[in-house]
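We were asked to recover a plausible sequence for a given structure. The inputs and outputs are reproduced exactly as logged, with field labels preserved.

PROBLEM: sequence recovery
POSITIONS: 144
GIVEN STRUCTURE:
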């Protein structure tokens, strides 16, 4: 099978599936466990930060980071690199925070039903994975 012409399509579809599954899991938790005693609604902040990270990472092209096509604007190449770095910080921060919430609120206290914590971690993992697939799985050579 010739993947050269379909690489961007496959990466976009896989990334979208990861992003969708992440949010689908947490929406399931929010619908089933609507009581704040079981699943604190403040835990959704991790997913929101992961989503913002997704957009920050993928709004900067590889050529802008390398400095090939971007020299004007706010801070030029350095601004693009800072934006990209902050996007990764938000993504890792959301992933680490969701792992912390999983253990702090569900595993250590010995809660009987740990699915909400696992779903929160999987949400952030899938969003971050989708972000990586979308950023590094596509080829920008086709854009000209």
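RECOVERED SEQUENCE:
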């Amino acid at each position: 099978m010739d993947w050269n012409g379909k690489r961007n399509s496959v990466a976009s579809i896989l990334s979208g599936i990861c992003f969708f599954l992440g949010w689908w899991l947490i929406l399931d938790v929010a619908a089933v466990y609507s009581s704040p005693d079981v699943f604190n609604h403040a835990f959704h902040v991790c997913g929101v930060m992961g989503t913002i990270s997704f957009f920050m990472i993928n709004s900067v092209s590889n050529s802008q980071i390398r400095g090939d096509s971007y020299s004007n604007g706010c801070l030029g190449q350095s601004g693009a690199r800072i934006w990209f770095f902050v996007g990764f910080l938000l993504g890792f921060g959301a992933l680490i925070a969701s792992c912390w919430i999983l253990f702090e609120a569900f595993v250590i206290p010995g809660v009987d039903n740990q699915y909400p914590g696992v779903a929160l971690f999987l949400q952030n993992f899938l969003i971050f994975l989708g972000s990586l697939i979308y950023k590094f799985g596509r080829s920008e050579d086709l854009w000209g």
